[in-house]
Structure to design on (849 residues):
């Protein structure tokens, strides 16, 4: 028997005043008390807008035209203020750092109570109790700078639980978290759901990661409409995911490659429920039949770090004894949890910081004497957020900036900029203002602005962060093209899929030490490395075990080789 | 992680009698003592308050390294102030004290008088005794407690919270600034003093523009996060960091109130003016 409806959209449409077309069309959706619902959809599908309607940011902070009705607990939301709604709907936003408004964890948790004029004594008591629920009670005095991403997210969660809301809304809870922390986050949400029976809504495009734990149903949005509302088993075995541009779970992809017809009775929604009986033979036959990819990069070494140490304060090493070689034309991942030293490593390579010990060599030459500007002609770096790099209104000027700084004649600049824009697929936008571009196009502009200096090595920090599968593929295929032109690419990333699919080799850092430097398939099946670097084993590993394939690493590698051949890379 | 740090406001969590006082107490004491020193032009009184504020500075275990930068700025300010005050009004002391005891004739009709020396020395000591108090207040008060004390002395909580937010996000913006500046330097931006002033200004824009755009994203997020948790829904709010007054707080307030009253009394009953006049 179903519980009472708690959220009900009826013939609901919404159009932002700033947009020419509605963002949500004919939404009819009922969510019942105590349900756990996942809302997925590509970027621009309207899933965040739907969330904003539920928590009241629409129409409070974002104005627009609403038709139809949305009732929460039987009351029309248009008659309620965002403050009333915040007593019913607690929202955890995706950026756990930005939404941390307090100077300490305790203050941040107490924020809603402070605004409610709860007196000192009861406030401290409630903060303490809620902090215990999310395991933050010993860290109440810590500032956001002392907390990890996961701890900040727990703080945000406590900050809404403190209000005893009925509905918890999570807006992309996995963005910005490393794989292990993301996995824990899903577990915490699930535990809270089980203990409290609250209604849970998760908005996320990383389907497989959310399906680490049970959800009642998945709602798929595309172009502002609900195109599916079903349980995970039915969804995963339907063609909807592929058509919508949402990544299906990796083990499902592997099953399909193996020629298995994935159907709902196999319970493929979660790897733990998957019924493998009929598929085992198909899977191991497929695995045996994959031709090994024996290509080895035998190019000369282009970049070398040898015994590099670094410390900000002279006492605690942020990097200790880092040694590795990178060959020309490689595309490699640099992974590890936040604070493991990945960004510091890229800063040393660019010369922003100076190693305290050890040598960095480019083509065998020590580059410690080169200035930042000189190094930029060898090693280019692209920051995660394109807004942090774009400083000119026009695309042409933005890309030309680095060349103009170098006093290169304007005719040469023109031909170089045009050439790079062509490579980056931006030729038709050459006279456009940057503000008219999408996020992915902006990202390309920032990459173009670095490539124009003709660096031999390109470092990208989380190039696909926050991107849906379609845009992710777009950016990554573009980087593959660049890589084919001979540019060596180093990707700093939390994304295990990216690492598996695009980089044959990965370097893993943990607490400033290099803990692994090998192929992605080895790393993602090695429990020790996974543990110490906050990674997560791939579901392909579990699939191999379930199919009684003894060599799990070989199976994962086989999958990579198969896919690479399929995509002709 | 936070290696660059925010050295200007580095509040340290220490356990001293000064740190234990509530933020509101410290604000009240600071105001009492500041008014006392600002009101009185009696060098003797000012020296007593100064001795007191240095004693408190010591008690709060503030290290010189924490305040070095501020001390340098203050010293520069005091010196400039001294020189400028003299050149703009070399006879101001004479005007105040009503006598004219020339020490030495400088040039033209400008002379150095005892009155001017007393006036200017008094004035500089006024600054020198208030500033340590300000430093103590900033460095021993938890920033959000500071915001809550502002609210309790009558500043609207939205304004008080703005102070706390500034302190909260200042290091983030600082880190963004550093990242952006490094990325732009890699593209060839010259921030050194070699560049011409006009170029340096233009170059600074190349960092400031991305900084503004990335901060705007952040502001939208923060304001949403605050709306969603009911900030601004009622005309008052309570504070998690507020502290109850105990004996030490009352003691501290009584001591500073007494100093304040004593200073005023000296002016009214002994000097019969704000100025101490040894010349008549």
């Amino acid at each position: 028997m179903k519980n009472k409806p708690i959220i009900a959209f009826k013939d609901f449409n919404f159009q932002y005043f700033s947009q020419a077309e509605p963002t949500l069309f004919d939404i009819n959706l009922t969510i019942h008390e105590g349900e756990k619902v996942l809302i997925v959809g590509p970027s621009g599908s309207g899933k965040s807008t739907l969330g904003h309607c539920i928590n009241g940011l629409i129409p409070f902070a974002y104005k627009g035209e609403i038709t139809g009705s949305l009732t929460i607990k039987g009351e029309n939301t248009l008659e309620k203020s965002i403050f009333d709604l915040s007593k019913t709907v607690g929202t955890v936003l995706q950026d756990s750092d930005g939404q941390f408004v307090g100077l300490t964890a305790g203050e941040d948790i107490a924020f809603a109570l402070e605004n409610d004029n709860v007196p000192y004594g009861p406030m401290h008591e409630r903060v303490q109790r809620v902090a215990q629920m999310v395991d933050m009670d010993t860290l109440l005095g810590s500032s956001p700078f002392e907390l990890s991403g996961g701890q900040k997210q727990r703080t945000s969660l406590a900050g809404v639980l403190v209000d005893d809301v009925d509905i918890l809304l999570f807006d992309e809870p996995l963005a910005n978290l490393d794989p292990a922390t993301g996995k824990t986050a899903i577990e915490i949400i699930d535990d809270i759901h089980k203990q409290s029976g609250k209604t849970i809504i998760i908005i996320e495009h990383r389907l497989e990661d959310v399906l680490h734990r049970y959800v009642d149903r998945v709602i798929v949005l595309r172009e502002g409409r609900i195109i599916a509302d079903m349980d995970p088993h039915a969804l995963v075995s339907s063609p909807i995911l592929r058509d919508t541009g949402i990544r299906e779970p990796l083990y499902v992809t592997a099953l399909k490659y193996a020629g298995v017809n994935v159907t709902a009775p196999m319970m493929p929604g979660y790897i733990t429920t998957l019924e493998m009986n009929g598929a085992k033979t198909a899977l191991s036959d497929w695995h045996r039949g994959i031709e090994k990819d024996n290509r080895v990069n035998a190019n000369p070494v282009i970049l070398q770090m040898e015994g590099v140490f670094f410390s900000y304060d002279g006492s605690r090493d942020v990097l200790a004894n880092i040694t590795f070689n990178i060959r020309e034309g490689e595309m490699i991942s640099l992974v590890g949890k936040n604070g493991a030293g990945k960004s510091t490593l890229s800063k040393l390579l660019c010369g922003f910081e100076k190693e305290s010990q050890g040598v960095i060599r480019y083509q065998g030459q020590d580059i410690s004497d080169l200035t930042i500007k000189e190094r930029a002609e060898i090693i280019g770096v692209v920051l995660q957020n394109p807004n942090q790099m774009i400083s000119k209104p026009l695309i042409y000027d933005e890309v030309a900036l680095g060349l103009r700084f170098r006093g290169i004649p304007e005719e040469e600049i023109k031909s170089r900029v045009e050439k790079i824009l062509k490579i980056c697929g931006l030729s038709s936008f050459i006279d456009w203002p940057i503000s008219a571009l999408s996020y992915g196009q902006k990202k390309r502009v920032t990459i173009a602005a670095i490539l124009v200096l003709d660096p031999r090595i390109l470092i990208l920090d989380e190039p696909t962060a926050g991107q849906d599968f379609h845009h992710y593929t777009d950016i990554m295929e573009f980087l593959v093209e660049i890589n084919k032109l001979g540019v060596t690419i180093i990707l700093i990333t939390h994304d295990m899929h990216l690492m598996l699919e695009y980089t044959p080799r990965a370097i893993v850092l943990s607490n400033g030490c290099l803990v692994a430097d090998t192929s992605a398939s080895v790393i993602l099946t090695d429990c020790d490395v996974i543990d110490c670097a906050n990674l997560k084993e791939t579901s392909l590993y579990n699939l191999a075990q379930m199919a009684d394939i003894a060599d799990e690493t070989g199976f994962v590698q086989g999958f990579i080789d198969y896919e690479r051949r399929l995509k002709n890379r | 992680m936070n290696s660059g740090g925010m050295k200007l406001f580095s509040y340290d969590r220490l356990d001293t009698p000064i740190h234990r006082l509530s933020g509101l107490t410290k604000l009240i004491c600071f105001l009492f003592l500041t008014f006392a020193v600002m009101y009185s032009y009696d060098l003797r009184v000012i020296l007593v308050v100064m001795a007191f504020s240095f004693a408190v500075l010591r008690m709060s275990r503030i290290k010189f390294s924490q305040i070095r930068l501020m001390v340098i700025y203050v010293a520069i300010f005091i010196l400039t102030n001294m020189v400028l005050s003299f050149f703009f009004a070399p006879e101001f002391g004479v005007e105040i004290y009503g006598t004219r005891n020339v020490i030495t004739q400088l040039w033209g009709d400008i002379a150095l008088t005892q009155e001017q020396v007393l006036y200017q020395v008094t004035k500089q000591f006024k600054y020198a005794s208030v500033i340590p108090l300000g430093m103590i207040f900033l460095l021993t008060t938890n920033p959000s407690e500071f915001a809550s004390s502002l609210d309790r002395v009558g500043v609207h909580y939205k304004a008080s919270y703005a102070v706390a937010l500034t302190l909260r996000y200042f290091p983030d913006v600082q880190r963004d600034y550093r990242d952006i500046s490094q990325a732009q330097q890699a593209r060839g931006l010259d921030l050194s003093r070699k560049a011409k002033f006009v170029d340096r200004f233009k170059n600074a824009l190349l960092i400031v523009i991305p900084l503004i755009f990335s901060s705007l994203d952040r502001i939208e997020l923060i304001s949403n996060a605050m709306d969603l948790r009911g900030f601004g829904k009622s005309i008052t709010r309570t504070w998690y960091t507020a502290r109850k007054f105990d004996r030490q707080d009352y003691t501290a307030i009584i001591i500073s109130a007494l100093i304040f009253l004593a200073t005023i009394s000296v002016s009214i009953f002994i000097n019969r003016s704000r100025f101490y006049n040894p010349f008549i």
In short: Chain A is about 40% helix and 20% strand. The mean pLDDT of chain A is 91. Chain A touches chain B through 69 residues (CB under 8 Å). Residues 179-196 of chain A form the longest helix (18 residues).
